[in-house]
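call fold target=AtuA-like ferredoxin-fold domain-containing protein
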Amino acid sequence: MSRKTTVALHALAHGRTGDKGDRSNVSLIAYRPEFLETIVAEVTEARVAKQFAHRKPRSVKRYVLPKLGALNFVLDGVLDGGVNGALNLDAHGKSLAFLLLELPIAIPAKLVPLLSDSKTSKIPRRRKQ
């Protein structure tokens, strides 16, 4: 059994959010290729639905984009009807990526040394392929 350490998802990836009507797209882009396998294993549709449970998503669909080192989540019904129908402060849901980036992730001990850049608040660089 390998040892694991728990870190916030933002130590492994950054995110962006877009919207269309009552649908939100939340993308995760791994800082390093070595992090993608762990992100794919840990950030499932079920965990994302649980993280956004207070927004009551009708569905959560995950798309894995390995050539981009990224995942895209499509969440239906999380924007209170969308920009034209919602009175909330973040009608576009632009802050939803930040909510997802707070998700605790168990990472193998071998990845911990790769986090050193993010622990010092520097954005880690991707390796050239």
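return ok
The chain has one domain: 4-110. The helical segments are 33-42, 45-51, 96-101, 116-119.
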